[in-house]
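Quick start: what a row looks like.
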Amino acid sequence: MTPQRRREIHQLAEEILQRFADCMANDVVNVEAMIAKLGGTITRLATNPFAYEAVIQKHDDSFRIDLRPGYPEVRQRFSLAHELGHLFLHMGFEQPEWGKLAEGTDSSMARYGTSDLEYEANEFAAALLV
């Protein structure tokens, strides 16, 4: 990731934090409240149907994040923030590209842990939460 891209990601995270300042308490971001305000939903799965901690999908013109069970709350917060990174950085949410995505399009195409898109989503999550 270039320094310029890192700055862009941090700027976007800062804009999101300012937009959702009411989702902060004692300098802690309530990611679940942010997702709800964006019109998204979170599904905590009872089983492990996929190999990822979380996955985000376009769903009914909004989005749904499925979380795999068994992770501590702090890790789940990071996973949710990471998926928001995919939503804003790679899926074009609130941009013209969003309307072109097919129902069910998800972030799993960017997975396997070491792609540039995964690093970018991690950078976004860190910038959002810290």
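That is the whole record. Residues 3-129 form a domain with the Arc Repressor Mutant, subunit A fold (CATH 1.10.10.2910). The mean pLDDT is 87.
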